[in-house]
Amino acid sequence: METKNVMIVGVGGQGSLLASKLLGRLLLARGYDIKVSEVHGMSQRGGSVVTYVRFGDKVYSPVIDKGEADFIVSFELLEAARWTEFLKPGGKIITNTQQVNPMPVIIGATAYPEDLLGKMQAAGIDVDALDALTLAEQAGSSKAVNLVLMGRLSKYFDIPSEEWLAAIEASVPPKFLELNKKAFQLGLEA
Prior knowledge:
Layout (H helix, E strand, L loop, with lengths): L3 E8 L4 H14 L3 E7 L8 E9 L12 E6 L2 H6 L4 E10 L6 H4 L9 H7 L3 E5 L1 H8 L5 H10 L6 H11 L5 H13 L1
Parallel strand pairs: 1-4, 4-5, 5-6
Antiparallel strand pairs: 1-3, 2-3
Helix pairs in contact: 1-6, 1-7, 5-6, 5-8, 6-8
């Protein structure tokens, strides 16, 4: 199998690292060679966070270059737009429609870009957008956006839901397990 590449992008504190660990655990259990690399940036200050997940028969590098990502899973619209050049032709962006204002917007130095979803689609990018925040809140916590997005990503993988749920059970503390399973299911069904 040729190497497949998934980028998980967001803002610090949104749960992208848990999402990448869950995906890595799932793919490792399926027998793939896998490399996961985390680039934190200013994650503790609400800055950009990027995680690369690469899998296949043999993976030599943990880094995804421009034009190589099969999937970009984005926790926020501006982050989705920021990383589009990493998407390969025929790749897909799965994004939360939530907007998190970066510091230049917060201090009034600039405005949040308008109609990012429309601009990405007009550029020919295949975008699957959903309101993951509302679905996470329906599951019981706004912090479950990561599992909503993993549920949505699972639609594009030929891996049974039971295996995804096993990876969730191995990745999430028991007291949050049912909430996270519900969030995953809501993302899958959205």
